[in-house]
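REQUEST FORM: STRUCTURE PREDICTION
Request ID: SP-0412
Submitted by: Lab K.M.
Chain count: 1
Length (residues): 106
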Amino acid sequence: MTFTSIHQDLVYDGWCGLSSDELTMYYGRYGGTFSLWKATRTSITAQFTNPVVVPELNIGSNTFAPYLMPDSLTIYFTSMPNGQSAWNLYMATRNSLSDPFETLNC
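STATUS: Completed
RESULT:
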């Protein structure tokens, strides 16, 4: 399946992590810097739509490679925060699916 409904020309989309029901996808987007985005769909046969940046997870100018745990309450990702010169692994959690991710751990 192609993702024409969320892809923009001249950017690279990749490194996706799917929720266990396959209705939410977190992915990395490169358009000069890396950032984490989220898109949703109504069924597993539908195209992903409504791409939005995930501001609480974009902790630097380069954040990508999300891995979502099966409960969708914990996500792991890679980032190089502003002012640092090394890539780090991070974990963020949330209390419910309707909450934003908040607790960041390196």
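NOTES: The CA atoms of residues 23 and 42 lie 6 Å apart.
Reviewed by: T.R.
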